[in-house]
UniProtKB/TrEMBL annotation:
Matches recorded under Pfam families: Peripla_BP_4
Lineage: Bacteria, Bacillati, Bacillota, Bacilli, Bacillales
Assigned keywords, A-Z: Signal
SUPFAM superfamilies on file: Periplasmic binding protein-like I
Domain annotation Periplasmic binding protein: ranges: 60-317
Official protein name in the record: Methylthioribose-binding protein
Origin species: Paenibacillus radicis (ex Gao et al. 2016)
A GO cellular-component term linked to this record: outer membrane-bounded periplasmic space
Length: 369
């Protein structure tokens, strides 16, 4: 019995020593979750985010609050141009300035299984539920000019305050710091609200420039503005009654300019925001009261929004808010012969062909067959 006990104790002691040795041993990569680089049997997995082939053939929905005017048409052109260069396809959902319809269009885009959704304008109250639903289903979303605050959803916006400041400062300079002006503006749109901030500051800075009338309607904006401006001109019929008109949207500027020109009141100058080919033709016309506008190329806006979406597809990080820098376009800087927005870069520094958000891999994606 004693001999067996001694053998048993010897075996038990040996086993304990082995366990202690195993616990005390440290792997070569302790403190690092990665396998030891010196182990020839271990290889790092390939980085999937370097493979752009998965980005071809994406289906993209563009959900718009409204598609009125040439600015919107050129913006859509920019979206389609960039998506098609990336090998994808765009479907446009126009909502006719009806927020309820826009919310339904967003739901439809989510339910139809698009890979990504671009949103143009709208209001958070109508959009955020649909945006959150899209994100929950793994659909990438990028917003332009809507005050949507959903984590993981980049929002593009023009530097609206800067655009308003550029035009208002020129108005004040041309007017000599005093006069009577008409404001055409409408509440309820994120970019309009940002432009209004600059307008309030302008009023404080130039107390001798008085606002005598303010109006604005986003439904049929050019036609409605023309009709309302015609009424204002009858209310203030004498030369000098109105110094200038400041408009917070190019559709407003079109309507106001047509009314002023038809009434022969071209002593009144019009200052606008945004730019399209149609707008540029009016500004170049020496008989037109519309003399200047601050804007970002609408085609570039569309292209940059698409680039932002494709960065989301690829898993790259975007800033929560992406600000697009405007330029100031005035008649005095333009040639006498007519030019379009494609040619405008020859005369206005910073206009068109923006490289913002354009990554090297995107060039590769455009060239991929």
């Amino acid at each position: 019995m004693k001999k067996q006990s001694k053998v048993y104790l010897t075996v038990l002691l040996a086993a304990m020593l082995l366990v202690l040795a195993a616990c005390g041993a440290k792997p070569a990569n302790e403190g690092n979750n990665k396998p030891a680089a010196t182990d020839p049997a271990v290889t790092e997995p390939a980085a999937n985010n370097n493979d752009i082939s998965a980005l071809k053939g994406k289906k993209v929905a563009l959900v718009m609050q409204f598609n009125t005017g040439t600015f919107s048409s050129q913006y859509v052109e920019g979206v389609k141009d960039q998506v098609e260069k990336f090998g994808g396809k765009v479907t446009v959902f126009a909502s006719d300035n009806d927020l309820g319809k826009m919310a339904s269009n967003l739901d439809a885009a989510v339910n139809q299984g698009f890979d990504g959704i671009l949103i143009d304008h709208g209001q958070a109250s109508a959009l955020e539920a649909g945006v959150k639903n899209a994100i929950a289903k793994g659909i990438s979303v990028v917003v332009f000019d809507a005050d949507v605050k959903v984590e993981g959803v980049p929002v593009l916006q023009q530097d609206d305050k800067k655009m308003a400041e550029l035009t208002l400062e020129q108005l004040a300079k041309d007017a000599g710091g005093k006069g009577s002006i008409v404001k055409v503006w409408v509440a309820g749109f994120a970019p309009m609200e940002r432009r209004q901030v600059a307008y309030k500051e302008f009023q404080s800075k130039y107390p001798e420039i008085k606002e005598i009338v303010a109006f604005g309607n986003a439904n049929n904006p050019a036609i409605d503005t023309q009709a309302q401006m015609e009424a204002v001109l009858k209310q203030y019929p004498n030369k000098g009654d109105i110094t200038a008109v400041w408009t917070a949207w190019d559709e407003f500027a079109k309507g106001a300019s047509r009314a002023i020109q038809q009434a022969g009141r071209t002593e009144i100058k019009v200052y606008g925001i945004d730019m399209s080919d149609e707008d540029l033709q009016m500004i170049q016309d020496p008989a037109s009261p519309w003399v200047a506008s601050a804007a970002v190329d609408p085609k570039d806006i569309g292209r940059i929004q698409v680039r932002t979406l494709y960065k989301e597809f690829k898993g790259e990080e975007n800033e929560p808010v992406i600000v697009l820098n405007p330029v100031y376009v005035q008649r005095d800087a333009l040639p006498t012969e007519k030019v379009n927005t494609t040619q405008l870069a020859q005369y206005i520094e910073g206009w068109g062909s923006s490289e913002q958000g354009y990554e090297d891999w995107m060039k590769e994606l455009e060239g991929a067959k």
